[in-house]
Amino acid sequence: MNTFNKIIKLIKTSKKTIVLTGAGISTESGLPDFRSKDGFWTKNKPIQFQDYLDNEEQQRLSWSRNIELHEILKKIRPNIGHTFVEKIVNLNNKENFLITQNIDGLHQRSGVSEDKIIEIHGNAIDARCLNCGETADILDFHAAIKANNPLPKCINCNGIVKVATISFGQPMNESDMLKASKISSECELMIVMGSSLSVMPAGQIPNLAIKSGAKLVILNREETIYDAMADIVINDELEIICGELIKLI
């Protein structure tokens, strides 16, 4: 049995599989890794969360960058890696889930429902009040920036609204992290795709699966710190790997 067939067998026999995805799955759609040489944070100095709270100019800069990101997202589409993840998560009679480090919404666009995804770094698609948690229409903020108008406030409490990503210095969403930890500790199989596992707290998640006795599969272009502990590792482009796996699932 070759490696691809072994992976498919693990997926089909596992009652609860968790897929953990990182930036590498979206780079093949044409979205640069945010931390790469051509990435967003290389070209743009990150805005610290406290600076966002204290300074309206930083808020406006953040929303301007979100407009720029949305223009990029309009031009890209989910790729075969996203399609493969969707097929795993939506397998019948399974308790499979997706944990993603990505903020681009491509997994939802590929057909994974919101109740099957934990976005541990948030997303760039939604907006939320930092005071009461009320959601807001992100396009209202885009319009305010383009027209050079004051930024809207929360319609519920008049608080500051921010795009729903986790910024530098911003606390992680506690409920998302608790759920991610819980399902990772309960899974029978974890598949890591397109992540170096070097960014915390995502880098700690596979350890929870290993400690619970789960099998670990790593599909990533480069080596990770977990390769020696994994049951199966394939270091190659995800387009190539998933092109083979999707024929078998």
From TrEMBL:
Active-site annotation: H121 (proton acceptor)
Residues in Deacetylase sirtuin-type domain copies: 1-249
Enzyme Commission code: 2.3.1.286
Annotated PROSITE patterns: SIRTUIN (PS50305)
UniProt enzyme class: transferase
Keyword presence, Translocase: no
Pfam family, one: SIR2
Keyword Chloroplast: no
Keywords: Metal-binding, NAD, Transferase, Zinc
InterPro entries, alphabetized: DHS-like_NAD/FAD-binding_dom, NAD-dep_sirtuin_deacylases, Sirtuin, Ssirtuin_cat_dom
GO molecular function, one term: histone deacetylase activity, NAD-dependent
Residues involved in Zn(2+) binding: C129, C132, C154, C157
Xref: CDD domains: SIR2-fam
Protein name from the UniProt record: protein acetyllysine N-acetyltransferase
Organism, scientific name: SAR86 cluster bacterium
Taxonomic lineage: Bacteria, Pseudomonadati, Pseudomonadota, Gammaproteobacteria, SAR86 cluster
